[in-house]
Amino acid sequence: MLSGGRVAALKALTAFRRSGVWPQDALDAAIRREKLDTRDAALAQRICRGVLRNRMYLDWILARHLSTPCEKLEPQLLDILRLSAYQLLFLDRIPVNAAVSQGVELTKKFVNIRASGLANAVLRKVAAERGGLPAVKHSDLAESLSLRYSHPKWLVEQFLTRLSAAECEALLAADNEEPFVTLQTNRIRTTADELEAELSDLGAVRHPWCEGAFVLSGQGAPAELSALRDGRCWVQDPAARCAVTAAGIKPGMTVLDICAAPGGKSFAAASDMLNKGDLRAFDIGEKKLSRMDAMAETLGITIMRTAPMDGSVYCSAMKEIADVVIADVPCSGFGTMRKNPDVRYKEDEETKGLPEIQLAILKNAINYVKPGGVLLYSTCTLLQRENEDVVNAFLHERKDTHLEAFSVPGAEAPEGMKTFWPHKDGTDGFFAAKLRRDTTHGED
After folding, report:
1. Which of 379, 26, 377, 43 is nearest to 237 (CA)?
2. Would the pTM count as exceeding 0.85?
3. Mean pLDDT (the chain, rounded)
4. Mind listing the domains of the chain with CATH numbers?
5. Could you count the other beta carbons within 10 Å of the beta carbon of residue 356?
6. pLDDT tens digit string along 262-298?
7. Measuring CA to CA, which residue among 420, 396, 397 is closest to residue 408?
8. How many CB atoms lie within 10 A of CB 63?
9. Residues 404, 302: Cα–Cα separation, whole Å
10. How many C-beta neighbours within 10 Å does residue 363 have?
11. What's residue 234's pLDDT?
12. Minimal CA–CA distance to 15: which of 3, 1, 25?
């Protein structure tokens, strides 16, 4: 009998391959169609994300046992071989016979009976390699790391310009780990001590340096968790929360979040403001803003107003009104590969135009900052061209603004810029720069 979890994983991977559907959406839809229980849904999630994280490596393994190149196989068959090989090589608790036989049955049902013989033979050979992942050996370091950790070679080369070979490998390995879920205390509704008393029963522990944060391991963010349902916390990575802390937001301030969706930084700002002041959140996606409004109501936030707006287009009504402007700009997202494993397969050309957009937003955002106020620039990527290079280009034009050192738990930034690395900080890959506008300024 076919496993519903494996069928759901296959359907989600197929949907992603065919149409580029966001994998989590495709997986959720497949789980609903298959009417999976919690256990099978968790298996489907693990397989789907695992295949996406390790796709290039799995293809390299499969190619060793195929007479036909992977790209020449029936695409549905390749999907099945990938998800079966992933179970054999990465999920030790799944018996070999179960992984192989389920792969064969999937092939019979979704490809054809003739191809099931090929699937059986290949998977038996892959199973023989279980117990120690075969090493990729290549004279080109970037190529070797690319194949072993399933990151595009061009991206590995970018990381190697900033990291040693050992550090780069540690980063790539961290990208392939299961992420933790971090819950942030909503100070409007509760205290960290009160939240800890409840969450400790679920095995949550205080984050080692992010104040008011709790780490849930071994599970997702359960929708039925009462603290989430009642708005006493929200899910946010420690690096993103730390960046908002660095901005120095206080009760009574006027704060603008000009690229706000999905809303974590706005919620953090409202918590720091203790729901006192003026908080405005903007984004180009009205549906995203509607979801933010609903979440704000759950969190008890009454000071936040949302409106659709392009962060790069000047609004004269907001000239110099803000104590703090948060510009968490659209980026390549390469810091979020643990949570969004599909992100890694973007081509270099897809992201090269982003710095121009980011700089345009930054140049517009400074106009909303009061003299003496703060502009927080952030991204969830690790590419220098989207981070330090954008900030430096901005500062070259704006002589009335300077980087300001900041020090908060988890982040020492004597130069005013901080990169969070998954393998060092245990967070998403994230970049933050704190910019202070001079009290007397020059040209806008």
Report:
1. 379
2. yes
3. 94
4. 4-127 (1.10.940.10), 141-175 (no CATH), 181-235 (3.30.70.1170), 238-437 (3.40.50.150)
5. 11
6. 999 999 999 999 999 999 999 998 899 999 999 999 9
7. 420
8. 13
9. 31
10. 16
11. 96
12. 25
Q: Which amino acid is at 435?
A: L
Contact 249, 269 (CB under 8 A): yes
Place 444 in a pLDDT band, splitting at 50, 70 and 90. Answer: very low
CA of residue 325 relative to chain centroid, distance:
23
Chain centroid offset of residue 181 CA: 11
Contact predicate 376/403, CB 8 Å: no
CA distance 401 to 286: 32
Answer yes or no: is pLDDT of 442 > 70. no
- The proportion of the chain whose per-residue pLDDT surpasses 90, expressed as a percent, equals 84
H or E segment to which residue 322 belongs: strand 322-328
**SS3 category, 42:** helix
**β partners of residue 216:** 181
Q: How far is CA 369 from CA 258, 396, 434, in A?
A: 12, 18, 13
The two structure tokens encoding residue 286: 């009205």
Q: What is the pLDDT of residues 238-248, one digit of tens each?
A: 999 999 999 99
Neighbour tally for 125: CB within 10 Å: 15
Check whether 219 has a pLDDT greater than 80.
no
Residue 146 predicted with pLDDT over 90: yes
- What's the CA gap between 405 and 403, in Å, rounded? 7
